[in-house]
């Protein structure tokens, strides 16, 4: 079993490099206090991807974290998140990453383009939407914890900004900027993922930080 050379690895059950970077920033204080090194699941060659068959974000986050623990014998965190559009009854929801059916490097652009086409005739006052995130921590002893976070906004009529990923260029906050126009620190302070993992950080400190 390879663990990237870290004696105290916390595995993030994701192969998304953007997400690994975000989580290292959001959890930086907790990781330092606990003496943990956050590693993406790519650091463990034997780890396999799991089918995200859950019907809720929490279901999928737990599926991924459990699989990472089984493959690595290390504590693992995972999240599942997506965009819930009011006029679509909460869709794309758990299907956010697969909304357009396009995979690979062009997935985000294809998802954004399809959503904008679907909402082309929806007036501004009905373009409310929000990101939702469920963050899960699973330990080898079977302990499971889930925390959730959300952020609200309205959907822009065209992508704006070059930061972030996924639907970030579409969700506009009350200050008139999309999440893709926020600096990383600004985004982490208000984002759904930031809120969920800040809550989970307290659990990491409670479980792993040295006493005293």
Rounded to the nearest angstrom, the distance between the terminal CA atoms is 33 Å
**Architecture per CATH nomenclature, i.e. the level-2 architecture:** Alpha-Beta Complex
CATH C-level class = Alpha Beta
Average pLDDT, to the nearest integer? 92
Give the helix level as a range of percent.
25-40%
User: Structural class, from helix and strand content?
Assistant: alpha/beta
Q: What is the number of beta strands?
A: 6
* String of helices and strands: EHHEHEHEEEHH
Q: Per CATH, what is the topology?
A: Maf protein
Unreliable residue runs: 1-7
Topology:
Elements: E1 9-12, H1 17-26, H2 28-34, E2 37-40, H3 57-72, E3 76-85, H4 107-118, E4 128-138, E5 144-155, E6 171-172, H5 184-190, H6 192-208
Parallel strand pairs: 1-2, 1-3
Antiparallel strand pairs: 3-4, 4-5, 5-6
Helix pairs in contact: 2-6, 5-6
Q: How would you characterize the overall build of this protein?
A:
- This protein has 212 residues and is an alpha/beta fold.
- The chain is built from six helices and six strands.
- A hairpin with a 5-residue loop joins β4 (128-138) and β5 (144-155).
- The protein has one domain (9-208): Maf protein (Alpha-Beta Complex).
- α2 (28-34) runs parallel beside α6 (192-208).
- Helices cover 33% and strands 20% of the residues.
- The two termini are 33 Å apart.
Essential attributes:
Maf protein, 20% strand, six-stranded mixed β-sheet, alpha/beta
Give a short overview.
With 212 residues, the protein is an alpha/beta fold. The protein contains 6 helices and 6 strands. The chain has helices at residues 17-26, 28-34, 57-72, 107-118, 184-190, 192-208, and strands spanning 9-12, 37-40, 76-85, 128-138, 144-155, 171-172.
